[in-house]
Amino acid sequence: MTDTGARCVCGRIDVHAHFLPEVYAQALERAGMRTLDGGFPVPKWSAEAALGVMDRQDIATAMVSLSSPSTHFLPPAERPALARAVNDAGAALVQARPDRFGYFACLPMPDIEASLAEIRRAFDELGADGVVLQTNTDGVYLGSPAFAPILAELNRRKTTLFLHPTSPACFGALALGRPAPLLEFPLDTTRTIVDLLYSRRLQTNPASMTPISLRLRHRSRKRNSTRKSWEGPMTAFPYQQIILNLRGLGLSCAFGDLTDSFLH
Ligand SMILES: [Zn+2]
């Protein structure tokens, strides 16, 4: 229902929705992770429960992705296997309900070769809708020359990039004792955008960096699915992420109209 009580018939799409497939929940548990980044207890997740929330909120389609810390809680050498398993789970979810879910593949950053291989697999084999990257990987930001091959490949493929905030490496010294989403998530988003701008990665990789377009029409046709066909353009970051964080702080009135224009 909308604020006015009328039922929304606009085919609302939630581009910031997370999933926790069983393989990921088990990996968190093995690593002793009781909370996700931000201090929230690791929630139970299931497709059925997610669909229930979506139905109650009039959300037609949810584009699921891993939240922070993605695979970054593991040693780098162990990240590729978990990223592959999570992306397989995302593909299975979409295959089961192509009318309700899409997904953004995670990459085993900072391993460049493994990340490039996972980009190929995600798009050429699994049919991912885009890629989710955290704002930094082990303290390295997206403007780093080390990550240039990743951004170049995403740009070459005109891939949707969903940027998700994570805590900075120096979180403990900066966060004023507050949870990460309050202060450091929007600031880390700003930090990586500034790094992208001043390294000129945005200017040299424009296709996947400015305004983001989700192109689901292709996949609907290819898979002959019942997914609602639609296409962008939809500016999804950085403003969306910052606004969503502000909305999380109770500032929805001031930013409601603007937020809606990003989400629809
Ligand atoms: Zn999130």
Write up what this structure looks like.
The chain has a single domain (12-263), classed as Metal-dependent hydrolases (TIM Barrel, Alpha-Beta Barrel), CATH 3.20.20.140. 43% of the residues lie in helices and 12% in strands. The protein is built from 11 helices and 7 strands. It has helices at 22-30, 47-56, 79-96, 112-126, 148-156, 171-174, 184-198, 201-204, 217-223, 239-248, 252-263; strands at 12-18, 59-65, 101-106, 130-134, 136-137, 140-141, 161-164. It is globular, with a radius of gyration of 18 Å. The protein starts with 11 loop residues before the first strand and ends with a helix. The model is unreliable at 1-5 and 210-264 (pLDDT under 50). Zinc ion binds at residues 16, 18, 67, 164.
Quick structural gist:
The protein is an alpha/beta fold and 264 residues long.
CATH superfamily: Metal-dependent hydrolases
Number of domains: 1
Helix content: 40-55%
Ligand kinds: zinc ion
- CATH architecture label name: Alpha-Beta Barrel
Q: Radius of gyration from the CA trace?
A: 18 Å
Secondary-structure element series: EHHEHEHEEEHEHHHHHH
Major sheet, described briefly? 5 strands, parallel
Average residue pLDDT: 80
Kindly name the structural category: alpha/beta
Under the CATH scheme, which class?
Alpha Beta
Number of strands: 7
Termini separation (Å)? Answer: 15 Å
Walk across the major sheet and give the strand order: 1-2-3-4-7
